[in-house]
Amino acid sequence: MIVTPQQVEQYQTHGYCVLPNAIPANHLENLRAECGRFIEQMHAEMDAKGTDTLGISHRNSRYFISRRAQQSEKLMGFLFSDLMAEVTQALLGPEVYLFNEQYVVKAAERGMKFAWHQDSGYVHFNGGAPHKPYLSCWCPLDDATIENGTVYILPFDRAGTREIVPHLEEAGTNDKVGYFGDDPGDPVEVPAGSIVCFTSYTFHRSGPNTTDQMRRVYLAQYSGEPLRKLADGSLWGWAIPFIEQGRNVAAVAQR
User: Most exposed: 48, 63, 158, 164, by fewest CB within 10 Å?
Assistant: First the structure.
């Protein structure tokens, strides 16, 4: 099994679990190759707009490159793979939708920190309706260390909540911040190809990249139900069917 009963229990109790070396080599190489391609695309978008900042992405410092999977057979192959079918069913149950995907990249020696937040805090901040926790699969494409800005997790019992809290926008970065306590959290240092799984209600942050190499992460996010906008009930993000009654319907559709 990729996900053990003990890891499921940790996910449910503490808000996260770690799957070391879970991603096969072919998928890992595909994710790395597409990362470089999409960074170049983002540079072209910045050039066209005459800016070095797009949202919370900052040229040569930090990149968030979202929802490009439908432009890439390699990304779709990973997102709807048997591996991700097993991981998502173990942690979400027999009904799974692809909600979002993005690259999170910190440039060498200049990669910015990322403030304490819940992923659902961003959804709520941007008009999302109340929703059940969804699953974030944080997949490092390089060995993740404290020095290169790995993720820090704040377990539920130390965060003092298992609910979404209001987030404030941080001046200068556009980050949304929801935790202002003194707990530094637990750094997760794992080899490339691991998967750090956490709920969208779990507080996490990351430090700056102080090394001479990029720190690349692919973030795949899945939900047990479609997420909606509060204003009109329309979809917030994607709701691409993946698992229905325990069956990989996305894999069937791609054959």
Answer: 48
